[in-house]
Amino acid sequence: MKQNTFRKKVKQGSTRGRSGKNIFTLIEEKLNVKGILGDGIPVKFVPPFLYVALVALIYIWSNHRAENLIRKIEVVQREVEDLRADVTTLEAEYMLSSKQSEVARKIAPLGIVEISEPPVKVKAKK
């Protein structure tokens, strides 16, 4: 029985006439990627890398959502301050218009006058 063996890799020559060095091969030579990873990325590094990538995405999403929420809270706080100022103004106007002197001034054009005598208490006879 024969044993299984690996085929030898055949190096492909450059078809363009260049020396076969493009930007990726230059980066690979400078960073010495083969010295760190070998011929490829080991499969045992894929799940931790995907986990870290997922955690990073969740962190970025959470940060983005928090910033948007803070912006919305600031907008709502400004609206609340405006409404609070409006309510205070309306309450002051209502309090002024409900004074006896203001009511008398408003009904004077209708011919209704304010009484100057106190009311008389009517007593029933037994």
Report on the architecture of this protein.
- With 126 residues, the protein is mostly helical.
- It has a domain at 40-107.
- The chain is built from four helices and no strands.
- The N and C termini lie far apart (136 Å).
Largest sheet: none
Percentage of residues in helical conformation: 55-70%
N/C terminus separation: 136 Å
Structural class: mainly alpha
The counted number of beta strands is: 0
Radius of gyration over C-alpha positions, nearest whole angstrom: 44 Å
Shape: rod-shaped
Strand content: under 5%
What is the mean predicted local confidence, pLDDT? Answer: 85
Low-confidence stretches: none
Q: Output the number of helix runs.
A: 4
Described by its quaternary structure, the protein is single chain
H and E order: HHHH
Keywords:
126 residues, mainly alpha, 59% helix
What is the structure about, briefly put?
This protein is 59% helix and 0% strand. It is built from 4 helices and no strands.
Topology, pairings included?
Blueprint: H1 23-31, H2 33-37, H3 46-97, H4 100-107
